[in-house]
Amino acid sequence: KNPERRGSTSPSPRGRAPRILTTQRLRHLDVRHMRISPDATRRAILLPFAAALISTSVPGAALAGERGTAQTVGLDTGSLIIDPRALNAERGLIWGGRERCDPTDVACTQGGELITAAGELPPPKRPVGYEVTDRLKMSFVVAGEPAGDVVVALWRPAAPTATDAFVRLGRGMLTTGENEEPASLERSTAVRILRNEAVVLGALRKPGGSTLLVAGQTRPQRVPVAPPKYDDDNNLSHDAAGWLSVRRGGGSFEFVLTPRANPALDREWLIIGQVEEGMGLVERLNTLPTNNYDRAPLATVQLRSVTVL
Question: What is the DSSP letter of 59?
Answer without folding.
Answer: P
